[in-house]
Design goal:
Layout (H helix, E strand, L loop, with lengths): L11 E13 L9 E6 L8 E4 L3 E8 L7 E4 L23 E7 L4 E7 L3 H4 L6 E6 L8 E10 L14 H5 L7 E4 L6 E4 L4 E8 L6 E5 L5 E5 L2 E6 L5 E4 L4 E7 L7 E6 L7 E8 L29 E9 L8 E3 L2 E3 L1 H6 L4 E3 L7 H5 L5 E3 L4 E8 L5 E5 L4 E6 L2 E2 L5 E2 L1 E4 L4 E7 L4 E7 L2 H5 L3 E6 L1
Parallel strand pairs: 1-4, 3-8, 9-12, 11-19, 20-25, 24-33
Antiparallel strand pairs: 1-2, 4-6, 5-7, 7-8, 9-10, 12-17, 13-16, 13-18, 14-15, 14-17, 18-19, 20-23, 21-22, 25-31, 26-30, 26-32, 27-28, 27-29, 27-31, 32-33
Length: 455
């Protein structure tokens, strides 16, 4: 019997991330560099790559003039490593450092970003990819990452300073006017005919929802939020990614040398635009026909027991055009005008989150016993989209609009449309307080934030 190849032993990866002001060439040589905030002087920050089972020890040094903290989005970390100021750690003061140390239990595409004043720190440039490779990765010719971000720039490529303004907070969040791939406005992305690419798409924008159409190509989704799915073409041919969502796709280069094909973002058909052109360059890599797309091995996630699950109603409310709205902030029931006067517009179950320090001492949205199953029946009473993110857990999306789904994917972030509802099922993980919030970061800052206690 042939022996199997030995798996690499787990490794400890030690690295340092420095959050500091920097400059970036976001829009090419015709414009000045943009003043940004960056990890290690680059936007996005360094791509961290490790293998499932490895451990990371990351020292984050804060050279900003304000506090910060780093959240490892999608990684099932110990609660103390989750990076939420006041809820799981003290914020990192200017000039100070904090050491995050955790194992990587799940393969997949993840990312990191601040969770302190994230409505400003993320769109200023503080974000990066965290890739956890499988023990036995699928065979592809290239494994590439696109970190998608958008920026609100003036005519001199300077970031506008209107973070957290009334309109962004109360409507659809801070939408930029410039979209970048890996930190620059891209004209071309080069392919060779006959190659197979694993393309990891990460939406690091604070509010923009992407719906990517790969003209003349048929991308196949093999993972969502890092979790393996049965390979399938995206619905309607568009890869939809709301803020914080990720998708791994297989892109087979079926074109010919010299061909150009556009990638279009058409989430809003009235404002569709060309993101980048796929350009075929050089001699074909091979002539052979493509085989079926690879199937990723599933991560070992605890399966919810729907028969025994406790069910909880969760209601999102608020925002402009949302109808009559009263909610409780700091123990006082306020109407929309009074809430707006305090910079708050959104609520979960009638409670508006204050700042992080006050929020950490408030009552949890719900309390779960570790290892038990729960179903959150979430209703969106607002006129706006909300990407729903739960820290420290993956959940299955089991129903939409009260109807059970045939395909119940694992997610850590899921997009809920206006006036829609969905049911998500999970198993309560490690003990502690876990953030639950909308990942349109202005909505989070504007009150759409809660936490779940696991005991």
């Amino acid at each position: 019997m042939a022996s199997l190849p030995a798996r690499a032993a787990p490794r400890l990866h030690e690295l340092k991330l420095v959050a500091a002001p920097a400059q970036a060439k976001l829009v090419g040589e015709k414009f000045p560099s943009t003043d940004v905030w960056a990890f290690n002087g680059a936007v996005p920050g360094p791509t961290i790559r490790a293998r499932v089972g490895d451990k990371l020890r990351i020292t984050v040094e804060n050279k900003l003039a304000e506090e910060t903290a780093v959240h490892w989005h999608g990684i099932r970390v110990p609660n103390a490593m989750d990076g939420v100021p006041y809820l799981t750690q003290k914020p990192i003061a200017p000039g100070a450092s904090f050491v995050y140390e955790f194992a990587l239990p799940d393969a997949g595409s993840y990312w990191y970003h601040p969770h302190h004043r994230s409505f400003e720190q993320v769109p200023r440039g503080l974000h990066g990819a965290l890739i956890v490779e499988e023990a036995e990765p699928p065979k592809v010719d290239r494994d590439e990452v696109w970190v998608l971000a958008d920026w609100r720039l003036d005519d001199q490529a300077k970031l506008t300073a209107d973070f957290g303004n009334f309109r962004d907070m109360s409507h659809d969040g801070r939408l930029g006017n410039t979209v970048t791939i890996n930190g620059s406005e891209a004209e071309e992305w080069r392919l060779r005919a006959g190659e197979r690419v694993r393309l990891r798409l990460i939406n690091a924008a604070s509010a923009r929802i992407f719906a990517l159409e790969f003209k003349d190509h048929k991308p196949v989704v093999i993972a969502l939020d890092g979790q393996a799915v049965e390979p399938r073409e995206p619905a309607g041919g568009r890869v939809v990614l709301s803020p914080a969502e990720r998708a791994d796709i297989i892109l087979d280069a079926v074109g010919k040398p010299g061909q150009r094909s556009s990638v279009i973002d058409a989430f809003d058909p009235r404002a569709a635009y060309r993101l980048v052109d796929l350009v075929y360059d050089g001699a074909p890599l091979r002539q052979a026909a493509f085989g079926p797309p690879p199937r990723l091995a599933a991560n070992a996630l605890p399966e919810p027991d729907l028969a025994q699950a406790e069910r909880f109603a969760v209601r999102f409310s608020g925002g402009m055009m949302g109808g009559p709205f009263e909610a409780v902030l700091d123990g006082t029931t306020l109407d929309p005008r009074a809430l707006a006067g305090r910079g708050k517009f959104w609520a979960i179950n009638g409670i508006v989150a204050g700042d992080h320090s006050a929020h950490a001492h408030g009552a949890p949205l719900l309390t779960l016993k570790r290892g038990t199953s729960a179903v959150l029946q979430i209703a969106n009473d607002t006129a706006w989209h909300h990407p729903v993110h739960l820290h420290g857990h993956f959940f299955r999306v089991i129903a939409e609009g009260g109807a059970a789904l045939k395909t119940q994917d694992w997610r850590d972030t899921v997009l809920m449309g206006p006036k829609e509802s969905m049911d998500i099922a999970l198993v309560a993980g490690e003990s502690g307080l876990w953030m639950f919030h909308c990942h349109i970061l202005d909505h989070q800052q504007g009150g759409m934030m809660a936490h779940i206690r696991v005991v």
